[in-house]
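dude i think i finally got it to work??
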Amino acid sequence: MSSLSMVCGELHLIANESKARSEWVSRPNYILRASVAVIILLSIIVLLYSISMMDISLKTIDAGELVQVMDAGLNDLVLIGAAIFFLITMETRIKRTRAISALHELRAVAHVIDMHQLTKDPSQWLNQMVLTPSSPRREMSAYELTRYLDYCSEMLSLAGKVAALYAQNFPDAVVLAAVNEVETLTTGLSRKIWQKIMILNKLDADTPHSTNKPDAPVISPG
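look at this
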């Protein structure tokens, strides 16, 4: 139980940090927006000033030169538009990077929880189970094993709910997809755990007066 409690403590820490992170992600960054607006405004002013300083007369320019000027102007407009788009979307990309990094932490915690419950096999309470020297030690009673698996399922559910915080006030498509992946992962892992819990409940219903069964026989290799 001690190792699982450490994972629970880590999840609790991540949940507390996620509250602050999700609030930061949903809060407008006015300093960055003002800086971007100033840069775009200065760029437009410089562009207009440069155009005003050009001495171009349609009477003295031939068709070939006009095409070259128009082509160069269109290329410049495309580059300027791309630069403006890059600046405008900078805030979203910064927030997206931070949200994705936090969701990766939750995904990693979910896999750690799953690793802890892998060896918690309810088949140890079946009479036909035979242990080998390499089998993991199973010292929990049926009730303790049920509670252990229940804790794992609850932690996975909490991890999925914490992930949803990042999509609550930040409707970014990439973040929403990552949140859905975490929720799908935690739901699938929790479903596997509940299958084990249902097996234990069925065994408990079949043997209502027995809380522990004799240890299964251990066979030696060869």
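The CA atoms of residues 1 and 148 lie 8 Å apart.
im so relieved honestly
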